[in-house]
Amino acid sequence: xxxxxxxxxxxxxxxxARFLQGRGYVIRARNYRxxxxxxxxxxxxxxxxxxxxxVRTRRGNxxxxxxxxxxxxxxxxxxxxxxxxxQEHNWMGDWQVDVIAIELTAQGRLLRVTHLPNAVGLW
Length: 123
Known about the structure:
The protein is α+β, with helices and mostly antiparallel strands. It has a single domain, classed as Trna Endonuclease, Chain: A, domain 1 (3-Layer(aba) Sandwich), CATH 3.40.1350. It is built from two helices and five strands; from the N terminus they run αβββαββ. A five-stranded mixed β-sheet has the order 1-2-3-4-5. Strand 4 (95-104) and strand 5 (110-116) form a beta hairpin. The longest helix has 19 residues, at 3-21. The protein is globular and about 45 Å long. It starts with a helix and ends in a 7-residue tail after the last strand.
């Protein structure tokens, strides 16, 4: 990932973590990686449920919204990574995969932070 793009992604992940913490979520892990399948940006816990969070940050809308950037293949990989975490940590409770979409203007001003609970598989 290019330097500018990586900085934007890291900034978005930090913003998303603070957003969730402000709503009572406890961040358990960041950038959890499962072998060659991929990684998930945040692993959190909220009200006894494990929440895996994919964060998408976009500057401008030339390439669509942050939500639109999550393909069916990406969704499948997110589910595989989440299942690996659940097994590795012997999690016996409920879990879900959420998306946090962060949209900025082309100049970098924050437009919105949208939390989409249990979003993977919905589009």
